[in-house]
Amino acid sequence: MHTISKVWLFCLLLAMSTVASANLTIEITRGSDQALPIGVVPFEGSDGMPEDVAQIIHDNLDRSGFFDPLDRGSMFEQPSEADDVQYSTWRSLDVRYLVVGRAERTNSGYRIQYDLMDISGQRRMMSETVTANENDLRGAAHYISDQIFEEITDIRGAFSTRIAYVTAQGVGNNTDYGLYVADADGRNSQQILTSDQPILSPAWSPDGGKLAYVSFESGRPEIYIQEVDSGNRARITSFEGINGAPVWSPNGRRLAMSLSKDGQPDIYIMEIADRSLTRVTNSNSIDTEPAWSPDGRRLVFTSDRSGGPQIYQHRLGSGETERMTFTGNYNARARFSPDGENLFLIHRSDRGFQVARQEIDSGRLVTLSDSTSDESPSVAPNGTMVIFATQQGNNGVLSAVSADGRSSFRLPAAQGDVRDPAWSPFLNE
């Protein structure tokens, strides 16, 4: 924990590069050999549209790891209506599912009609009409992707979610830090905070309307809560020493955090309404990086109380604390899967710091990533992917790996460091 913290602070305080654009691009780095073949035909009437909706759907499904979309250049025909689909043609291309559609300009934007076809079953699985204004065609494409993903996999799609991340621009003492939110594919980035001092540990509220984070703008760490849309914010802690690692409870009424105001860093819970604090841990070790279980009854955290960073679990009802990780001598920054059955964490192996998944019941730990300097894992709200920070050359980039480790993609910026990702909850409850 000490080593990676020093590395992280070094990267933030001595960032030597610039970020030309906060929009991130996607590079598929590993595809799953079990991905389902699907075709997404270019939508009729999409010429001249500000966004290629079918291509966005194709890209979303591709990076999910569940699908292997057919290249457009391999399509013998491009139907736009379900009745025009020649099943034998698509079977010859080994396509199992097919998306066809068409777009029509309206007075207020576009009307998009799409159909999802089961090629082997020779049937239409779903059909829907979506309307969108010109500025929200990407949102419409993400929505359609969510519907297709859920119809085929029975797992709720997370393409309409967002990510938050931190950037660093500049050199040494002239470094500027930015807190951004963007679509889950890295596009439509919006800067919601800039500072000449480091910003750390953004965490989404359960309703997706606020971010908690740590800012050094006063010269020392303090925790803030900021409304994403309005930018309104409030400082909620400014204790002596460490004010760090805020995470929201599942009901959105409390924040767990690490404070050192009483000596060594310990885990505390704040009732946001009245700012009252409850001390959760009280040890001579460093206790930090808390995370709530989905039912809100447990907290996991990183502690060096056994001599090195390991994950511990505290049961809020009984006050019992137990060690959770035993594989290797470094396990840190754990996050629960949405079903509460797994922990995603940073594990140090002989190849470096990597994202891993540990089954809670069995304790079985599986390394998921193949990079060597991974940090800050954050789990998609449907539990299918984990986004994290890593190194690409001299730059910090975001990367993501599927929960089974079979597929991965990277979200590099054009230049500079991008760090500390946080995946939002579902935003269209």
Q: Can you offer a commentary on this structure?
A:
This protein is mostly beta strands and about 425 residues long. The N terminus is likely disordered. It is about 10% helix and about 45% strand. β5 and β6 form a beta hairpin.
Chain-averaged pLDDT:
92
Tell me about the largest β-sheet: 5 strands, antiparallel
Helix content: 10-25%
- Low-confidence region ranges: 1-21
Find the structural class using helix and strand composition: mainly beta
What would you call the shape?
A: globular
Count of helical segments?
4
Radius of gyration: 23 Å
Q: Let me know the number of strands.
A: 30
Enumerate the strands of the largest sheet in spatial order, edge to edge or round the barrel: 1-29-28-27-26
Distance between the termini: 37 Å
Beta-strand residue fraction: 35-45%
